[in-house]
Design a protein that fits this description.
The chain is mainly alpha-helical. The chain is built from eleven helices and two strands, in the order ααββααααααααα. It has one domain.
Length: 263
């Protein structure tokens, strides 16, 4: 456990050294966030509320989703597949640390560094331009951070699983593009899931994607409370367990294939 926290700290410090990349990502995310906010303002027109989202909630939603891009890496994440293709995985597997949890620790360190350098900065900048919805109690703030942590872990499990396709194909980037593109639509990143038809929302509920983005957003906005909130947190926990089990099984099969081929 001590090694796990050490890897988190090392990854956290490493991410903070990429000052130019963090600044460029921050500016880009903020710019596109303003464009998305303008689109939603036009969508609402004179309506005060749509599906339980006020115009203030909708604008806050664009800020939150743009702020979580770097934390959740839902646009692109390929270091595991790159390590397979480069052969670095051989050295990683020989280290006296669990391969899966070492990547989890590194990703959590990267995610929290991105949270501090980009997510918080974007929300502060948004507050200068818009009147945002803000959690009203300390308990709600704590729930937001807890659901965000769970969302990071769910996101990692999905991304790691996608990267394991590298064991079976000479170029898994195409699979990654399809998988990540699917997560944009089904997670509630591109548009709040509550604005979609009920049948589409039910479809999304059968995937891990809402647990990455939609749950965090709705907890922050106070849309889910009571039993619905407990259910949302339980669903996040269930997806973490399921994805971790799938990652373990697929990783074992992939390593066996790698060894059999003499890699």
């Amino acid at each position: 456990m001590r090694l796990f926290w050490k890897l988190i700290r090392q990854s956290f410090r490493l991410q903070l050294t990429y000052r130019a990349a963090n600044l460029a990502g921050l500016v880009t995310n903020f710019f596109f966030g303003l464009l998305r906010a303008a689109v939603l303002v036009a969508l609402y027109d004179s309506q005060a509320s749509i599906s339980g989202y006020s115009i203030q909630d909708a604008i806050t939603y664009t800020g939150l989703t743009q702020a979580t891009i770097a934390c959740l890496s839902i646009f692109r994440w390929t270091p595991v597949m790159q390590s397979v293709y480069s052969g670095e995985i051989a050295a990683d597997l020989l280290r006296p640390v669990d391969y899966f949890f070492s990547w989890l620790a590194r990703d959590l360190g990267r995610a929290w560094a991105s949270f501090l350098t980009r997510a918080l900065t974007i929300m502060v900048a948004y507050a200068l331009f818009f009147d945002l919805t803000v959690p009203q109690t300390l308990g709600q703030w704590l729930l937001v951070f807890f659901t965000l942590l769970l969302a990071m872990v769910v996101s990692f499990g999905w991304r790691f699983l996608v990267n394991l396709a590298a064991f079976w194909t000479p170029d898994a980037r195409g699979i990654g593009r399809l998988a990540f593109g699917m997560s944009w639509f089904l997670s509630g990143f591109l548009m709040p899931l509550r604005l979609f038809p009920p049948w589409f929302q039910r479809l999304c509920d059968w995937t891990p994607f809402p647990s990455m983005v939609n749950t965090v957003i709705e907890v922050y906005l106070g849309v889910v409370e009571g039993p619905d909130l407990a259910h949302a947190l339980l669903v996040q926990g269930v997806w973490i367990v399921l994805l971790f089990l799938c990652c373990r099984l697929v990783l074992r099969a992939g390593v066996r294939r790698l060894v059999i081929q003499g890699g």
